[in-house]
């Protein structure tokens, strides 16, 4: 098979985004746009992938890591100049080169394959991927002759009125004979409205040399959408979200209102789980089968077992094992592990804590830096006091212990199995097996105290 290479253009600043972040790093459904592009490129197994970086080069390289080689385009002089920076890496090689922009996150490997096929079929030196847009504003226009053969590409800013009326657009994806590409790039000038070296000019240059140039028109304009503005970013996110949600539904997940459910790419959800409207599932979240996630829940990097119920709660970097439940209005902060059949009720916060199976933490409680055993009952309004102003300290509570309501358990402290803490206690010392700790002022009743107080007459 002929060697295949890919160049990803990712050096531009993206002025129209008005952002400190390099354009290609803006996320769509949880991943930078350029990561989506590279992920699809990887599926066509290129022999080499070169990413052209410039603005935010360090951040782009950090985001993509060793998955691609990098070449720096120090000054952004246009897409043609950007591709030419790849010459030291690719210039001497025989094969086909796919050029794709880092700001077209919806394109798929399937389309790239179709482009390669078409390119080979036509025996072309260059094939541009085109689409028909309802509103072609901003895109390069495909100029064909009377026979329908591609002549050149004209950028929006350089287009005559007639050319601007054409609605077949350049998607910014091309397949080239590699050596022909680099030879032609040396002939590209910058005498145009933007004073840039346009990659698009390569098409016209090759055509004039009598080379075979072709254009493959893809059916779905939406897939080719380029993101230059925040508006387009929102549109791309909507399309990607629709794709992701459709896949989950195809796998047996019920999304009550898929238009309001935000699921990052890569999130895993088991069959027969129901996700209510307005739920956010982010990062590396995994949810098992038969779960229920209620409205206004936000899960980030959460690992959720089977048959778990989550109502209006936030879970970050934490684990909930099978048959447990949480909410409404509770918060698992990072590094919490909730055992099987655990009940976390309303208005609870758990941070860096392990809670054993069957334990109940029902109401208005803070569990920070603690290890709780199994079958514990934690009453209402309990505080695991973990911070002394300088350091965090740890609390252990054994199996079958009982922590009465409104207790403060001041770390570091150990409460043994079957120990009992009376309501309202402030516990500062360890409690042994089967003991009860009571640490609060004794109640004093003053007889007939009422008589000593001044009163309004009671008519
Ligand atoms: C480009 C095409 C246009 C096409 C559109 C599709 C050119 C001249 N125009 O326009 O025909 O319809 O894409 O989305 O190519 N880049 C660099 N270095 C540079 C300039 C750009 O790496 O010096 C990168 C950008 O980061 C971006 C890509 O090239 O990923 C395209 O650049 P952009 O400025 O977005 O081009 P468009 O105006 O969208
Ligand atoms: Ca663009």
From TrEMBL:
Q: Which cofactor does it need?
A: Mg(2+)
UniProt record similarity statement:
In the N-terminal section; belongs to the N-acetylglucosamine-1-phosphate uridyltransferase family.
Annotated source species: Loigolactobacillus backii
Concerning InterPro entries, the annotation shows: Bifunctional_GlmU, GlmU-like, GlmU_C_LbH, Hexapep, Hexapep_transf_CS, NTP_transferase_dom, Nucleotide-diphossugar_trans, Trimer_LpxA-like_sf
Q: Where is the active site?
A: 363
Cite the EC number.
Answer: 2.7.7.23, 2.3.1.157
Ligand binding (UDP-N-acetyl-alpha-D-glucosamine): 9-12, 23, 73, 101-103, 140, 155, 170, 228, 333, 351, 366, 377
Task: Tell me the segments the record calls region N-acetyltransferase.
Answer: 252-459
Q: How is the cofactor bound?
A: Binds 1 Mg(2+) ion per subunit.
**What are the binding positions for Mg(2+) in this chain?**
103, 228
Q: In which pathway does it act?
A: Bacterial outer membrane biogenesis; LPS lipid A biosynthesis; Nucleotide-sugar biosynthesis; UDP-N-acetyl-alpha-D-glucosamine biosynthesis; N-acetyl-alpha-D-glucosamine 1-phosphate from alpha-D-glucosamine 6-phosphate (route II): step 2/2; Nucleotide-sugar biosynthesis; UDP-N-acetyl-alpha-D-glucosamine biosynthesis; UDP-N-acetyl-alpha-D-glucosamine from N-acetyl-alpha-D-glucosamine 1-phosphate: step 1/1
Q: Where is this region: Linker?
A: 231-251
User: What is any Pfam family matched here?
Assistant: NTP_transferase
Residues that bind acetyl-CoA: 386-387, 405, 423, 440
Q: What is this protein called?
A: Bifunctional protein GlmU
What is its subcellular localisation?
A: Cytoplasm
Q: Which reaction does it catalyse?
A: N-acetyl-alpha-D-glucosamine 1-phosphate + UTP + H(+) = UDP-N-acetyl-alpha-D-glucosamine + diphosphate; alpha-D-glucosamine 1-phosphate + acetyl-CoA = N-acetyl-alpha-D-glucosamine 1-phosphate + CoA + H(+)
A GO cellular component term found in this entry reads:
membrane
Q: How does it assemble?
A: Homotrimer.
Q: Which UniProt keywords apply?
A: Acyltransferase, Cell shape, Cell wall biogenesis/degradation, Cytoplasm, Magnesium, Metal-binding, Multifunctional enzyme, Nucleotidyltransferase, Peptidoglycan synthesis, Repeat, Transferase
**BP GO terms, sorted:** cell morphogenesis; cell wall organization; lipid A biosynthetic process; peptidoglycan biosynthetic process; regulation of cell shape; UDP-N-acetylglucosamine biosynthetic process
């Amino acid at each position: 098979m002929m060697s295949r290479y890919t160049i990803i253009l990712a050096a531009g600043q993206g002025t129209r985004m008005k952002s400190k972040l390099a354009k290609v790093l803006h996320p769509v459904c949880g991943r930078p746009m350029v990561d989506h592009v590279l992920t699809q490129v990887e599926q066509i197994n290129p022999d080499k992938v070169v990413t052209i970086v410039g603005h935010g080069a360090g951040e782009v390289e950090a985001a993509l890591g060793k998955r691609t080689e990098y070449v720096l385009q120090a000054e952004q002089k246009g897409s043609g100049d950007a591709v030419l920076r790849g010459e030291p890496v690719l210039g001497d090689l025989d094969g086909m080169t796919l050029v794709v922009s880092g700001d077209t996150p919806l394109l798929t490997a399937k389309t790239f394959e179709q482009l390669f096929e078409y390119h080979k079929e036509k025996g072309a030196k260059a094939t541009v991927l085109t689409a028909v847009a309802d509103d072609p504003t901003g895109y390069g226009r495909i100029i064909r002759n009377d026979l329908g053969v591609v002549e050149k590409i004209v950028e929006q800013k350089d287009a005559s009125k007639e050319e601007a009326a054409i609605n077949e657009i350049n998607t910014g994806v091309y397949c080239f004979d590699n050596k022909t590409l680099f030879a032609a790039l040396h002939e590209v000038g910058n005498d145009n409205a933007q004073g840039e070296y346009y990659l698009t000019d390569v098409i016209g240059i090759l055509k004039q040399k009598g080379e075979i140039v072709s254009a493959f028109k893809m059916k779905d304009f939406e897939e080719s959408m380029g993101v230059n503005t925040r508006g387009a970013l929102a549109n791309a996110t909507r399309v990607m979200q629709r794709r992701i949600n459709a896949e989950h539904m195809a796998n047996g997940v019920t999304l009550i209102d898929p238009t309001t459910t935000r699921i990052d790419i890569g999130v895993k959800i088991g069959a027969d789980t129901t996700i209510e409207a307005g739920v956010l599932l982010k990062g590396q979240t995994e949810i098992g089968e038969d779960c229920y996630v209620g409205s206004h829940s936000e899960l980030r990097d959460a690992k959720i077992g089977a048959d778990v119920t989550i109502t209006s709660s936030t879970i970050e970097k934490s684990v909930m094992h099978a048959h447990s439940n949480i909410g409404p209005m509770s918060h698992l902060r990072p590094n919490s592990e909730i055992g099987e059949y655990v009940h976390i009720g309303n208005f609870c916060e758990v941070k860096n804590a392990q809670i054993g199976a069957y334990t109940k933490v029902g109401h208005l409680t803070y569990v920070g830096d603690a290890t709780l055993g199994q079958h514990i009952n934690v009453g209402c309004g309990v505080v695991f006091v973990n911070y002394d102003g300088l350091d965090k300290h740890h609390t252990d509570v054994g199996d079958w212990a009982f922590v009465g309501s409104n207790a403060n358990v001041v770390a570091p402290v150990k409460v043994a199995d079957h120990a009992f803490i009376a309501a309202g206690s402030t516990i500062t010392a360890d409690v042994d097996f089967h003991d009860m700790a009571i640490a609060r002022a004794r109640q004093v009743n003053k007889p007939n105290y009422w008589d000593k107080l001044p009163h309004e007459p009671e008519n």
